[in-house]
Amino acid sequence: MSKADSLFNKHKELLAKACDAIQERGHWLPYPEIPSGKIYGETAKQEGKEAFESSLNQPFIVKGPQPQGRVGVEVSPYTGELGISYDQYNAEDLIMTAKQALPAWRDAGPAARVGVCAEILERLNKRSFEIGNATMHTTGQGFAMAFQAGGPHAQDRGLEAVATAWLMMSKVPVSSTWNKPQGKHDPLLMSKKYHIVPRGIAMVVACSTFPTWNTYPGLFASLVTGNPVIIKPHSQAVLPVAITVQVCQQVLEECGFDPCLVQMAPEGHEVGIAQALATHPDMKIIDYTGGNHFGDWLSENARQARIYKEQAGVNTVLIDSLPSLKRSAQNLAFALSLYSGQMCTTPQAVLIPKTGIETDEGQMSFDQVADYLCNTIKKFLSDPERAISVLGAIPNPATVARLEAAESLGKVRLASESHPVPGFENALYRTPLVLEVEGTDAAWQQEQFGPISFLVAVEDTDQGLQLISEAVANKGAITFAVYSQDEAILDKAEQVAIEQGVALSCNLDGGVFVNQAAAFSDFHATGNNPAANASLTDVAFVADRYAVVQSRRHMVSE
Amino acid sequence: MSKADSLFNKHKELLAKACDAIQERGHWLPYPEIPSGKIYGETAKQEGKEAFESSLNQPFIVKGPQPQGRVGVEVSPYTGELGISYDQYNAEDLIMTAKQALPAWRDAGPAARVGVCAEILERLNKRSFEIGNATMHTTGQGFAMAFQAGGPHAQDRGLEAVATAWLMMSKVPVSSTWNKPQGKHDPLLMSKKYHIVPRGIAMVVACSTFPTWNTYPGLFASLVTGNPVIIKPHSQAVLPVAITVQVCQQVLEECGFDPCLVQMAPEGHEVGIAQALATHPDMKIIDYTGGNHFGDWLSENARQARIYKEQAGVNTVLIDSLPSLKRSAQNLAFALSLYSGQMCTTPQAVLIPKTGIETDEGQMSFDQVADYLCNTIKKFLSDPERAISVLGAIPNPATVARLEAAESLGKVRLASESHPVPGFENALYRTPLVLEVEGTDAAWQQEQFGPISFLVAVEDTDQGLQLISEAVANKGAITFAVYSQDEAILDKAEQVAIEQGVALSCNLDGGVFVNQAAAFSDFHATGNNPAANASLTDVAFVADRYAVVQSRRHMVSE
Question: What angle do CA A469, A475, A477 make, to 5 degrees?
Fold first, then answer.
């Protein structure tokens, strides 16, 4: 038995559980999300930190073709320049290296590939603290979030892609016997073979905010279906990708495969490598998370590839009534604050009827609701330790500039504040800016990436639903939340969600937030509106990454 | 229980068998392929002919928006003008009508849609003789083939798409309970709902040669996943589509759905409706079978839609050695003759080593093999009754013109002959033209649609494999056949098939022909070479026609 096949056996039970979970969609998390010493080992936290620190100010080596130079421009919003450099390559060299690696990986078959991918995920899980630190210092996320989103939650999404692909690939038999009766004559007998064949070379264009969470679905969906993968990390968030590539390469090599089945294509502030890779005739699959500018460019230019992309959107909350004012406001305060609004699932606009709403604490005017919400946010973020752990530090100066320019977009209901980060003397964190606008105002109907929220005064709930419907149709959205004690309104909201293809969350007032999507239970995005043309992780996300090639021949009847 | 749900129950057993068959891929055919009175009823043949004849020379009415005119230019290659006219519509009206029909169909859910689609297929099956006649007189196929390919075999492919989609859709639960433990606290409990939501409006651009066989997969895959479908028939082959649309509309209406969930957009020799429909912003799915000219246009212009297309290709046969000379030659004679080479699966080029080959009747030179094959074809087609039933009559004058011009493409080894069709005094059939060319000649590496075959003299088997590999990579192919008694050569051919994504048939010398793909067992095309970007019918063909939209809310724990 090959090493890869024995890894399939090793992870068989996990895989079976993952396959069940995908089809039941209850709560199931394969990789522990709590950064606890009891789970990960008492020394894991310290070792992870040390591993991260030992990477600083030196080259980080992964395998690839002949290097053409070195690059590294990552800046921690907490501690400044990371000083890590990475090899750079020619696009053509990367593609040729990937092509050479392909046949053996393809011919190993689905089970071997599943075994290798599951082992990679297990190894990544063991490095979650290191990845957490790397994620924190590249994305600016607070450590707890960086650990979860960059580590176990990203691994969950990776395993979800592996299991979804396995469910599909394993339904295609390796062979069949075709036995067609011919009346009184001997039957026609044929033996047939079916091969799962990858599309070709795949790439993942990673983003700066979730360098692993948004990368693993495409990486593992492409890899497990037989496609070599080249990851183009964002120049500001290379290290979490580099660690991932290193782990992939180690496991692949141990199993006798070419480590360059997973490669990295880093670049600095200059651009070019992503474009060259994306438009190469051999590039057949592209996964992309990021802004519309490059996403539209890809659709226009990388016509030879199947593109799975997640772009900008406008996520909304509609408040019709509040069955639990205090708890709902706390929930929203967290949702609007988390990672300084830099999640693709963060609500940008909260629509509230001008005529006021009913709450469990009585009727409230628009102004009262707005004040209550702003005060809840303010209070929630008044403790700097909590504030920094929720908000994180913003790594991208463009986001800070956007925040500063946004004050002119409406009436300021809560000003953004800037505070020093406890423990990191040169770093700042920023609290959210909350603006009030009219429903017809264009400002809230356009993605304003960062800690910028709008309270939108609408005529009534119906107009609110109509505006949300239009915003999702025109600009796309990944999340939509509604608060109402009226079942008829919740039904109407569900109809809007169905019509516009956006996930709906109703009356969230506890420990679940609209920004959060749980692997194996929640589909992230639907693929049915302009914010994303694919969902993480449904069948459509994996099924077109491979083809079935068959052969047939006559059998001599027994 | 709704009518549609009761239809699901009615067809449940058939569906279960279809789902098993898809995953086992042995021989299984739901709809009897033999035009026998014992199966279809003793009067069925006569009634089908009469039904066809009663449609001639008058309007054929299906439902749609306000008609804008009438059109009908179909000419039977056997009997002349059909004289049938069809309503024409505005593209915008068709789209708006489809949009109105969508919500109720979407909200009916997968099981109801599966029930309706299975019922449509059963009704279509009952009209197989009528469809057979309609197919014969529009495509020119001989009746036996027209019955099979236009009737039961097309229905097989339809059910295959329905069952493949059902396998996927039914794996998404309607609802789930998400129960996340919170240590000593109460668990977080959420109830979630999952909706299968169509992409939008779908269209099928049907072809003139297989107006139902190539239409049903896309039609049923789109319809069963919730998308209203508009079929744009080829101007020469409207009637088989019109009968199909009529049956769809009848069943839909009986079940309380808008019959205009399936509409038809006929046109005459002018063009425009397909372009207008394909580029409409609401058109989200396009299935296309036809030439590269319009296929490339679609990819260039219908960018808002997911396009599944089958275009031109170059199918090849490589003869390395012949374990059964006589039987193999007979098999090839049939394969090259069937429907005058107008199948997307017909081999166009037979590559034979110049140095000759081994056969069970001794070593033969290239010339001897070529003569043997040409003589076998000639003899096979010497009986006019058999010839017409296999070849059919060619409906498209452009194909005849291409045939006549093709003589200059190589050395004529077998001239095409023109003979009157028995029983149809004004009709002609044409026997295949067989040309000899060199391996490096460009002529055979370009699709020559119609009864034009090349015997290609190659240096040796390895060069033959290399040339085939290049031809498939550059021009695409749906089939590839090899004859050899050497397992190592068969393995090499299988490697080429895997590398280039083309289905392989080995040593066919009995009652299975390389042109034939059996639903539920053979995947038609792979989607992995330029001849087609999708396969009939794998998971990728259905999974991207719908999205999953979810909602979630807290549950109060018990």
Answer: 70
